[in-house]
């Protein structure tokens, strides 16, 4: 037990809270002393009180007391684990509580076998390739959880043990993030290779993962959510890619486990990770050409990752500074990590031959603290927007004007890593990594889609086409605006209002010498001069443009030279100029404002 003291990196900063049933001290495996994490504090000279506090938090988040780590020297192979007692201890009596703990169907989950077979969802030549089991890096699978169902958690662990070659699977590090029943995690150390860190106080998944990384010993770390099932040969493509390039961060394709009936469904393979200007993760479709030429056995460059399921080299993860320990509970760390990896000299790929199913749900079944979930997401996002996005933060705040009211807090530790690794700027990232992203125009007042009630301003074709006129303006169901992955093809709703010229425009596909190109066309009154009742059409922009020059007055769109005429949602597919009045049909809200 002498080795215990070496585990504590520095004094534990937080008092250990007493729980009603005090848990025993962690057990150290005989013959295998508890590993001392390779932790070198960053070279950091605090300048003021805030920075000093940040550095203390940085250290505290990376300090794991041996009292909080549990392993069982008498652990057994998984098939000796008493599954029935483990699951029965958590069964619900009342059917109405099926979704209460986890927001997915516990009644079904508890009866789905822990070692069930799932369909092999890989495409292309993935299942005819012989994936080598030797000569690959080892991995520590890291799973953090807060009030996870016993059955989904155990199925995750058993699927990992069954479908990962044992020479690659170094260990499974669980982090119980202060779940209300500590036995859910505690009982699992009876299974070989499972270690448990107990968070005595809720840290959120981001700090929970940092803690796991401090004690994990594999050559690589593989993070998983606590409700997944890994598929056939899932780990080899990931490990092989990291072996080829130690700065590569790799993710599987994330299949879907239905939250109601637990069916396992293959997900689309033709997607890469993206992000909206609101900094919400999204999937972007590949182009038709990319789909047709795709080789599933090769990594697919991905600007971002979903966050829950990925592998990264241990050394690279530490060199990068793990995660931002001042991000709470949930959200944003995946986008932050993606920007950091790319901007600081790494790469990210999805390996389509690696498949892992995840139970998707609609809500978070857990608590976000007194300020609520929105405050937590926005603060987490603001932290990385300020660290990584440079002047592109305008686009974020344009989409999320309210985000300005929440301060990101001290960022000195994160900026330290940015300097130390000599990371590139966001401009480089958007041009070289995420060229698929749509760029709002900078010299504009407003852009994106414009909403009128439930509907969005939309261009419709004319019944009788006229030369130089490309459509009329009306209202239609909203697509996702700027955040739509295939924005270029669905541009019937993407609008720009120019700052100086007052032109209200849309990029429109036109034929030029037989080639399709985008040109800005202008909205204006069909009548010259405009009058009450004039139709609004999309036409070539002209110099004599009294009928095309607009101003945006609070929520009204008016013609600059005719201040008593306002755009009016006259009929659904047929907007007109009408006398300005304080009514709903004249109020338009843009997706982004340049404020
Ligand atoms: O306080 C908490 N402590 C935790 O340990 C809250 C959550 N958690 C655990 C939780 O038990 C789960 O295992 O953290 C994991 C993720 O939380 P979920 O499953 O409630 O959320 P999610 O599936 O929406 O999470 C996605 O986004 C998160 C943003 O912070 C993380 O990056 C998750 O890892 C990520 N999950 C995936 O990417 C899975 C695929 C989803 C897609 C696309
Ligand atoms: Mn999840």
TrEMBL record:
SUPFAM superfamilies per UniProt: Nucleotide-diphospho-sugar transferases, Ricin B-like lectins
Superkingdom, taxonomy of origin: Eukaryota
Localisation: Golgi apparatus membrane
A Pfam family per the record: Glycos_transf_2
GO terms (BP aspect): protein O-linked glycosylation via N-acetyl-galactosamine
GO MF: carbohydrate binding; metal ion binding; polypeptide N-acetylgalactosaminyltransferase activity
Gene3D superfamilies cross-referenced by the UniProt entry: 2.80.10.50, Spore Coat Polysaccharide Biosynthesis Protein SpsA, Chain A (3.90.550.10)
Domain Glycosyltransferase 2-like: 140-320
Cofactor: Mn(2+)
GO cellular component: Golgi membrane
Coiled-coil residue windows: none
PROSITE patterns in UniProt: RICIN_B_LECTIN
E.C. number(s) listed in UniProt: 2.4.1.-
Keywords in alphabetical order: Disulfide bond, Glycosyltransferase, Golgi apparatus, Lectin, Manganese, Membrane, Metal-binding, Signal-anchor, Transferase, Transmembrane, Transmembrane helix
InterPro entries: GalNAc-T (IPR045885), Glyco_trans_2-like (IPR001173), Nucleotide-diphossugar_trans (IPR029044), Ricin_B-like_lectins (IPR035992)
Recorded topology in the membrane: Single-pass type II membrane protein
Family note: Belongs to the glycosyltransferase 2 family. GalNAc-T subfamily.
Protein name: Polypeptide N-acetylgalactosaminyltransferase
């Amino acid at each position: 037990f002498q080795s215990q003291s070496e585990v504590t990196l520095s004094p534990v900063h937080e008092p250990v809270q007493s729980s009603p049933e005090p848990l025993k001290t962690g057990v150290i495996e005989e013959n295998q002393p508890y590993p001392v994490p390779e932790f070198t504090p960053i070279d950091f000279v605090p300048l003021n009180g805030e920075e000093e506090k940040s550095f203390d938090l940085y250290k505290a988040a990376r300090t794991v007391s041996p009292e909080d780590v549990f392993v069982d020297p008498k652990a057994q192979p998984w098939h000796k684990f008493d599954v029935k007692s483990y699951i029965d201890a958590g069964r619900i009596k009342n059917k109405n509580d099926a979704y209460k703990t986890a927001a997915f169907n516990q009644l079904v989950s508890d009866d789905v076998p822990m070692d069930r077979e799932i369909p092999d969802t890989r495409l292309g030549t993935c299942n005819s390739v012989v994936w080598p089991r030797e000569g690959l890096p080892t991995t520590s699978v890291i799973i953090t959880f807060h009030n996870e169902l016993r059955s989904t958690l155990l199925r995750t662990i058993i699927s990992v043990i069954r479908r990962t070659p044992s020479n690659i699977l170094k260990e499974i590090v669980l982090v119980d993030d202060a779940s209300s029943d500590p036995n859910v995690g505690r009982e699992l150390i009876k299974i070989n290779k499972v270690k448990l860190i107990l968070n005595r106080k809720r840290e959120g998944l981001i700090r929970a993962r940092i803690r796991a990384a401090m004690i994990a010993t594999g050559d690589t770390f593989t993070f998983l959510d606590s409700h997944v099932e890994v598929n056939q040969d899932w780990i080899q493509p990931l490990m092989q890619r990291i072996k080829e390039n130690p700065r590569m961060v790799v993710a599987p394709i994330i299949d879907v486990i239905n939250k109601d009936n637990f069916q396992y469904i293959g997900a689309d393979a033709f997607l890469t990770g993206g992000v909206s200007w609101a900094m919400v993760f999204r999937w972007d479709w590949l182009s038709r050409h990319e789909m047709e030429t795709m080789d599933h056995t090769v990594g697919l460059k991905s600007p971002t990752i979903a966050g829950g399921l990925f592998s990264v080299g241990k050394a690279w993860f530490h060199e990068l500074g793990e995660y931002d320990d001042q991000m709470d509970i949930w959200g944003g760390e995946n986008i932050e990590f993606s920007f950091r990896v790319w901007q600081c000299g790494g790469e990210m790929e999805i390996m389509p031959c690696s498949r892992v199913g995840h139970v998707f749900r609609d809500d978070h079944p857990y608590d976000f603290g007194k300020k609520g979930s929105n405050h937590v997401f926005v603060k987490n996002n603001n932290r990385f927007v300020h660290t990584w996005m440079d002047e592109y933060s305008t686009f974020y705040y344009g989409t999320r004007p309210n985000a300005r009211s929440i301060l990101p807090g001290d960022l000195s530790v994160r900026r330290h890593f940015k300097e130390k690794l000599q990371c590139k700027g966001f401009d480089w990232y958007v041009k070289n990594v995420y060229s698929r992203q749509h760029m709002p125009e900078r010299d504009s007042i407003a852009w994106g889609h414009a909403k009128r009630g439930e509907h969005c301003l939309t261009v419709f074709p004319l019944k009788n086409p006229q030369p130089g006129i490309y459509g009329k303006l009306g209202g239609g169901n909203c697509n996702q605006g700027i955040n739509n992955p295939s924005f270029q093809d669905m541009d019937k709703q993407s609008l720009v209002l120019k700052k100086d010229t007052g032109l209200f425009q849309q990029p429109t596909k036109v034929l030029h010498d037989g080639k399709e190109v985008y040109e800005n066309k202008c909205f204006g009154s069909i009548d010259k001069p405009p009058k009450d009742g004039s139709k609004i059409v999309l036409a070539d922009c002209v110099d004599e443009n009294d009928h095309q020059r607009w101003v945006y007055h609070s929520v009204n769109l008016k013609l600059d030279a005719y201040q008593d005429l306002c755009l009016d949602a006259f009929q659904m597919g047929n907007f007109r100029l009408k006398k300005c009045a304080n009514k709903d049909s004249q109020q338009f809200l843009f997706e982004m404002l340049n404020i």
